[in-house]
Every structure is written in C-alpha cells, then in structure tokens.
Amino acid sequence: MTIFNTPILSWIFHHLAKYLMRFAGWRVDGTLPDLPKYILIGAPHTSNWDFVLFLGVIFTLRANVKFMGKAELFRSPFGWFFYWCGGVPVDRKKPQGLVEQMVESCNKSERFVLTIAPEGTRHHVNEWKMGFYHIANTAGIPLVMAIVDGTQRAVRVGQVFQPTGNMNADIKEVKAFFSGVKGVNPRRKYIKLED
Q1: How far apart are CA 73 and CA 143, in angstroms?
Q2: Positive/negative CA dihedral, 88, 90, 96, 99
C-alpha cells in the first residue's frame, strides 16, 4: 500500500491535483499504458517545481509509481513513510549495483512503475544518465515518456518504447520524443538530438 493507492486519501489527492493543475494552468495530455511494469521517464527537468508538477500528474492519472531512494531513508523511525510514498531503497554498500537492485525489485513485484528523470539534475547536461535504460533493458520492460512542455503548459504521457539492446540507436529514438521541448523553466535548457 502506498500513498497513491490508499483508500480515500488517493481519491482526495486525485481531485485536489486535478483542481490545482487546472488552477495553475497545466494539463495532462494522454494516459498511461495499462502495463504491469515499465520505467516512466520525465524530461526535460529544468526546475525545482518539476517535483510538484510530477506529483500533480501522478495523482491526476491515479498512477501507483515508485522512486529510488538511498537505503538510509528507509530506516526507523521514519522509514515506513518513504515506503508509503513509493520509495524503493538503493543500498550503495551492496556489491550489486543500482541497476541490479532495481531489476531485482522489479522481478519481485507484480506491478512496478519506476519514475526517473534521465538527466539526473535540473541543470543543463549534454548526456543523460543511462541507468533508466539499463534497468528497462535488463528487466525486459518498456520505457514510457512523460514530456514536460513548458511552452504549452502540458505534460504529454503515454508514448511507449521497448528497448532493443542497441543502446545508441534506442537512446536516439527516445530522445526524439523530447527533442526541442522546453521545460518548466524554458530559459534553462531543452533537449536536442546529437548530430
């Protein structure tokens, strides 16, 4: 049980999120696929407000998602809170790497929707962090796009991509979904394809 599927609370947050998104002038275009497992990647990440927007989108769509957090957050006395919020602990001291730990969590779960910002930071980066791709490819699950379009004040969701194992070609195709889109802070950056 997480905050996203807790009876009554999830209903309240769903309607509150829809109202607040409308009040802020943002909308969600599309729907998430009815798949048991996938990686939900959101970009471009340009502002601290992206997290608030992410929560609005997730509650609007009634999605039951997970996020990665360092293992220390999940210890007593407040560890239960991070599990309840959908957290999946990552232990940096384990010989297994982050990818292996997430694949293991995915394989143990009936439903597993992991959210990741592939840029890893709201500042401009030339390259995405590839952890999201390796998790999806190793686990054999698809990627689903959440495109943050600050110009249109919309988050477009639902485009599905199944990794083929050819990382360079796959990443180029995935980035094409986000190409030229400006985020919440349009002056910060936008994603462009390499030549």
Answers
A1: 27
A2: positive
How many angstroms separate the CA atoms of 168 and 102, rounded? 22
pLDDT in tens, 16-74: 999 999 999 999 999 999 999 999 999 888 887 888 898 999 999 999 999 998 889 89
187, two tokens: 């002056």
**Helix or strand or coil: residue 78?**
coil
Q: Residue 90 is inside which H or E element, if any? A: strand 87-90
pTM of the model: 0.88
SS3 91: coil
Torsion over CA: 128, 56, 38, 173 (sign):
negative
| pLDDT tens by residue, 69-119 | 888 989 989 899 989 999 999 887 776 789 999 999 999 999 999 999 888
* The two three-digit tokens of residue 141, written as one number: 């699950």
